[in-house]
Amino acid sequence: MLADSSVVTPALLQIARDQSRSRDIRRNAITWLSRRRDEKGGVGAAGIAKALDQLVRDRTESETIRTQALGTISRFDRGEGIPALMGFVGEADKWLARQAFQTLSRSGDPRARQFVREQVKRTDLDEDSKVEVIRGIGDDYATSADLKLLRELYPALDSDKERDAIISTVANAGGSENANWLLDIAKSKTEPLGRRRRAVSLLSKYDDVRVKEALKGLINP
Question: Cα(29)–Cα(9) distance, rounded to whole angstroms?
Answer without folding.
Answer: 9
